[in-house]
Amino acid sequence: MADHANAGPGMPQLDVTTFSNQIFWLVVTMVVLYFIMSRMALPRIAAVLADRRGTITSDIALAEELKQKAQSAEDAYNQALAEARAEAGRIVEAAKAEMQVELDVQIEKADAEIAARSAESERRIREIRDSALEMVSDVSKDATKDILERFDAKADARSVNAAVAARLKGGA
Amino acid sequence: MADENGGLVIKPMDQFEVKALFGGDVSWYTPTNVTLWMALTVLAATALMVYGARGRALVPNRAQSAAEMTYGFIYKMVEDVSGKDAVRFFPYIFTLFMFVLFANLLGLIPFAFTTTSHIAVTAVLALTVFLTVTALGFILHGTKFLKLFWVDSAPLALRPVLALIEIISYFVRPVSHSIRLAGAMMAGHAVAKVFAGFAAALGAAFFLPILAVTALYALELLVAVIQAYVFTILTCVYLKDALHPAH
User: Fold this and answer.
1) Given A145, A151, B12, B149, which is the most exposed site by the fewest CB atoms within 10 A?
2) Which of B30, B99, B182 sits opposite A30 (nearest CB)?
């Protein structure tokens, strides 16, 4: 209060006698603050910020890399699965083909056997038929001779045989 | 606040008086309240930017985060307003911002002395910026720096008139730069003191001025930060003119 009374009324801001004091301490303050900021505070904070940016960047890169790895692992798995499926398909196909071959062989064998048996049967049927025909002709000849003898018709055996054979052939 | 005669005497300007800390006259080297509060300003700024950020952690704690945000805020301002080549002036601009910000904020402590409310202080700060920027303009661009005042895009006849206006506005810069800050600080503190004086004088209705002081205090907090911001961004704008004088 006493100082104020001495300075008189008005603004202390306009009291030029204190200017040199204020300016002197301001300059000291600014120089000190500038050195503290520019030499200590700012480089440290800049380093921390750069460090953090670097860490974030490398972490993102790492995450990207891991993602790629996971992707490639999945691709490899899918490929292995597809290969296994294809392999299984091939095996099934091969087994089928093998079975078909076996089946063909068996069928062929069976066909051959059937053919052989039916040929044998046919042969035997023919034999039986031939012998039957022969018997028929013999019986016919004998019967004819007998009939002719009953009627006392004279007939030589050769002509009767020929006639019967002709008649059988024509009737057949 | 009432004087011996019982009348209401509020002395809102007393808080701005420069006083020697240990008594005696104020000469240029005397430790005064200016010295004390400027030292506290340095201490506060150092506490935030050095002590607060001491952890240097990858994941910052609150203080480190605040220091980093302040750093980032001013860095981005310098970069955006003045251009990328202005970042070499970043430490100085940052120092300015820290000084003004903490001087303003510390001044809001009751019974504190606000160093930035003095025109002598703000004028030196503004003049330093003005002289640095002007010298820088001439050093970097030589006489081409004068093109700042010669508006090529205007009609030829208008250019001398515009140049005169530009020159006047250029030289008014340090004045407005410094008076804006000192004025805002001084006015707010003086008004707060007046309201506080009313509270003492009004008796039973004391709460009204106290409410007003509370509201004013919140406003002053805002003003303290905004004025620091304004002072800094204007510095950036002036710096931009020196670095890139073309309009």
Assistant:
1) A151
2) B99
Q: Which residue has the tokens 């490929």?
A: A79
CB pairs under 8 A between A and B: 140
CB atoms near residue A161 (< 10 Å): 17
The CA distance from A113 to A107, in Å, is 10
Instruction: Please state the ipTM of this predicted complex.
Output: 0.90
Q: Which two tokens stand for residue A167?
A: 């008649």
Q: Cβ(B80)–Cβ(B89) under 8 Å? A: no
Nearest Cα residue to B146 out of B157, B138, B154: B138
| Mean pLDDT, residues A130-146 taken together | 86
Preferred mutation among B18, B42, B129 to probe A, highest tally of A CBs within 10 A:
B18
Find the largest Cα–Cα distance for chain A.
200
**Calpha distance A105→A107 (Å, rounded):** 5
Report the distance separating Cα B170 and Cα B242, nearest Å: 12
Token output for A58: 């490398």
CB atoms within 10 A of CB B191: 16
- The domain ranges of chain A are 2-171
Report the 10 Å Cβ neighbour count for B89.
Answer: 20
Please state the rounded mean pLDDT for residues B68-86. 94
Tell me the per-residue pLDDT of B7-47, one tens digit each, with 9 for 90 and over. 567 788 888 988 888 888 888 888 999 999 999 999 999 99
Contacts of B119 in chain A (CB under 8 A): 13-14
What pTM was estimated for this model as a whole?
A: 0.74
Each residue of B160-213: pLDDT tens digit?
Answer: 999 999 999 999 999 999 999 999 999 999 998 888 888 888 878 888 888 999
Contact B17 A29 (CB under 8 A): no
In contact, B229 and B81? CB cutoff 8 Å:
no
